[in-house]
């Protein structure tokens, strides 16, 4: 069900597909009726296989190409990224040496994915087809590379910048580049960023201090926007967007992939490690993610090891499976996170122990099993975690989400079932637990 409110992979869209849908007729910025100019906007789209528009693209592209600010609200894998990238490539001038579009992401991993798609679209079309200069896309995703980026910016500013908010603010505070020529600002995974105490202040400053909503087109994108009417109101009142901002909400009738089977096991807190171990031994997953909650401030002050490290140590000594046990969490430095993901992508089998950072932007299609060692805090977080599996296109392979819960947490899981419309099967504890 889709709604447009005023004030799976990346499924593609092409010029041919747009011409086949009357809803893609739009009014361009000069006020004249028109259609996408394939020579200018989509020279590479068909080459890289973008053919069929998703529902969110059908709903959002007419709004985006009319020049209005937009809140793209649709589940993970629905095609939001391609929708806002098509907007960006419709308005930038590759002949102009200036930052014209900025995409802000909460994690480096998501930034890498967005950059990859942007660079595919930005590449020069095949020879003798369309004569145009390809635009440059800068990935500003970690502090360790800022020196190289500084030299790049001095030599020739990129057309499009994909950045984490921390790296972006470092560059802006040092006056290494300006946003005076920016035409489009995208805040991706906006709910995650506004709920992060580390990022929300910088995001607000970017929206109001570094540039004005009146001089740019602003796009917010997320799989979930709790209290979206309130967010729409705040966008206008806080001047994060213009007053005619449009909320495009595509709510899938079945938000979970049909190939997912949801299960839960009830045990005491003291039994959780053994319960997880028994489940792993029974499932024998080739590739999976085990989600662990963030360490509490009280635990940190007490000098305790993070629960992720405790679990990794336990599994390395107790689990006899063939999979490597790897760690991924937000507070790891860039090199450690990159090393873990590199092992994952090149290894035969693995179990990735992760905090929720892995639910945003890490794309590992071979994942078949998700284990919630700790329940996520919200239904939205459950959806993001579950969305890490069942991602292989055209595969009918069964995938599993297993929840290790205490008796007191059963009602929380039931609430998630009701909100996200899925059924969770109870598994009995194995005899050796």
UniProtKB/TrEMBL annotation:
Q: Does the keyword section mention ATP-binding?
A: yes
| Entry's Gene Ontology molecular function annotations | ATP binding; hydrolase activity; RNA binding; RNA helicase activity
Q: Which organism is it from?
A: Dovyalis caffra
Catalyses which reaction(s): ATP + H2O = ADP + phosphate + H(+)
- What keywords would UniProt list here? ATP-binding, Helicase, Hydrolase, Nucleotide-binding
Name the CDD domains for this protein: DEADc, SF2_C_DEAD
Taking every annotated instance into account, which residue ranges of this chain make up the domain Helicase C-terminal? 272-433
UniProt-recorded name of the protein? RNA helicase
List the Pfam families: DEAD, Helicase_C
Q: Which InterPro entries match?
A: DEAD/DEAH_box_helicase_dom, DEAD/DEAH_RhlB, DEAD_box_RNA_helicases, Helicase_ATP-bd, Helicase_C-like, P-loop_NTPase
Domain Helicase ATP-binding intervals: 61-243
State its Enzyme Commission number(s): 3.6.4.13
